[in-house]
Amino acid sequence: MFNLTLSELSQALSRGDFSSLELTQALLDRIQRLDTTYNSFITLSEEQALEQAKAADALRAAGKATALTGLPIAHKDLFCTQGIRTSCGSKMLDNFVSPYNATLVERLNQAGMVTLGKTNMDEFAMGSSNESSYYGSVKNPWDTDRVPGGSSGGSAAAVAARLVPATTGSDTGGSIRQPAALCGITGLKPTYGRISRYGMIAYASSFDQAGPMTRSAEDAALLLQAMAGEDPLDSTCSTQAVPDYSATLNDSLAGLRIGLPKEYFAEGTDPQILQRVREAISEFEKLGASVKEISLPNTQLSIPAYYILAPAEASSNLSRFDGVRYGHRCASPKDLEDLYKRTRAEGFGPEVKRRIMVGTYALSEGFYDAYYRKAQQIRRVIQQDFVAALNEVDVIMAPVTPCSAFRLGEKNSDPVSMYMEDIFTLSLNLAGLPGISIPCGFADHLPVGLQIIGNYFAEGKLLNVAHQYQQVTAWHTQAPANLSEG
Amino acid sequence: MSLDRSDVERIAHLARIAIDEHEVPEYTESLNSILTLIDQLQSTSTEGVEPLAHPMDAVQRLRVDEVTEPNQREQLQACAPAVEEGLFLVPKVIE
Predict the structure, then answer these.
(1) C-alpha B61, offset from chain centre
(2) In this structure, is residue A419 part of a structural domain?
């Protein structure tokens, strides 16, 4: 049952092959047995999970089950869960139990899903390797000497290791797509505002977007359906109607226009990755798509623009961690300033402090125009490039990352080399566009991701395109060979 | 532009983060390498480009000013480090 997708598990539960309680218990046992190797979970919520599973089985017995009833999931540890610790991968929130649920958690609970626990992540979602977590690094199930990517590294590794069929993640600069690529799973970053941010601990509010991490596009469609839509508790959440994502999965790709941005296929990317991506694109041509070269000429500027804007928003967002209302507080503060300064010095790790300081500097008196305003102007330039490109093509295809999973510790000493990891993912967040990463083969023994980018609110198209690829290829069904029993 | 020791100490103060004497060189080095990266923007002309704050240029939605939430003070203060009679406790600010 560990290798089944959500869609397959849903059918198995309907047939009565096993109950949700049996499934939940089996997965909890498996996590306890195997996750000592991967460290993909921060907290297991056994008691709550078993209760939810019993309730789901009762609903099913009463004939009231829907597509997601009784299916297991785990949430990235930045989504607030009532009664289950939400640490955000930080010592600052090591003791934090939220008094309420994030909207998406609430919706998936309402749909009858079973929360197995909370997954590991880079501290406050700042990182591309999961090495900045207070709870230790996560190991990539394909090679445990390597990183799973980040910041949703635990969410990606848990799905890849068959510990849970699906997880939630968040993507501020690539944090769903990059770990999905490095762990060989499917990860969707929806349009900015498609899913409510209520109860999602904020990093950079004009970029942050939640999304599903699954083993197939079909599963991502199921989850997005339940997660997306207007929320009175988040005024930045879109009021656009949510289409039926599963209904368009099987649409034909005949006539689909694919754009390949030449800047994403330039030197500097592992040639094996480019080769895998080209092979995937030829599969789409067989399905009736046409391909043309396009240009996103300001791609290189996305890294500097992002590393001004996101830290600036972070420095403001993270000012709430002051040792007064929740979270860590330093011992015996001598005055209020000492309380703030030592609480924050003790509670935050080095990367979070660096980004807060960069943001503080960029927003400080005399530098605002040179940094913040300038970066916002570049943000528009980058967005306009995408708008122009998407007038000519239906989707854009590209690699997700310039290299496959790197070794633990390899990029840890130099923050800038870690930032370069996000070159193909960041610009989407600047523009607010949706993108999906799907597995498209291997470079040596490590998974490679194909990125598919679409227009605003074109999640249905992205899922359709990804699903059609997954109907004619089997990369998404590959599991690491060395997974322990089961 | 390059930051020196006193710049880093000033930024840390503005951010209300205590940094130890021995950490200052490390932060100075890493912040300078990040600033070198972000300074790449300066060479691009953006004259006349309207800054973009929201990907879809959305503006804040308003709603009717109605009371929708009940008082949940006790529940919300349950995770606070120090409270007394419904108040958050902090070190004495006014002598």
Answers:
(1) 24
(2) no
pLDDT digits (tens, 9 = 90+) for A236-258: 999 999 999 999 999 999 999 99
Q: Domain total for chain A?
A: 1
- The DSSP annotation for A421-473 comes to TTTTTHHHHHHT--EEEEEEEEETTEEEEEEEE-STT-HHHHHHHHHHHHHH-
Tell how strand A257-261 and strand A446-453 pair up. Answer: unpaired
Q: Which two tokens stand for residue A278?
A: 């080209």
- Model pLDDT for residues A88-98, shown as the tens digit of each residue: 999 999 999 99
Annotated domain spans of chain B: 5-42
- Contacts with A, B 28-67, CB within 8 Å: 30-31, 33-42, 44, 46, 49-56, 58, 60-61, 63
**Rounded to the nearest 5 degrees, what angle is found at the Cα of A402, between the Cα atoms of A398 and A408?**
140
In a domain, A378, yes or no: no
**E-assigned strands of A46-165?**
72-76, 114-119
Question: Does A235 fall in a domain?
Answer: yes
A419 to chain B, minimum CA–CA distance in Å? 9
Q: Domain span at residue A203?
A: 6-257+432-477
In total, chain B counts a number of residues equal to 95
Q: Mention every residue, 6+ apart, whose C-beta is less than 8 A from residue A482.
A: none
What tens digit of pLDDT does each residue of A158-193 get? 999 999 999 999 999 999 999 999 999 999 999 999
What are the tokens at A63? 């004939």
Q: Do A416 and B34 touch (CB under 8 A)?
A: yes
User: What is the model's pTM?
Assistant: 0.97
Total count of residues recorded for chain A: 486
CATH class of B5-42: mainly alpha
- What is this model's ipTM? 0.95
* Token code pair at residue B35: 């600033």
How far apart CA A240 and CA A186 sit, in angstroms, is: 24
Residue A91 lies in a domain: yes
- CB contact residues (below 8 A), chain A span 391-430, against chain B: 414-416, 419, 430
Residues of A forming the active site: 76, 151, 175
- DSSP one-letter code for A239: -
- Residues of chain B positioned with their CB less than 8 A from the CB of A430: 55
CATH number where A158 lies? 3.90.1300.10
- Considering only residues 5 to 24 of chain B, which have any Cβ-Cβ distance to chain A shorter than 8 Å? 8, 11-12, 14-19
Quick check: A326 and B79 CB within 8 A?
A: yes
Query: A146, A407 in Cβ contact below 8 A?
Result: yes
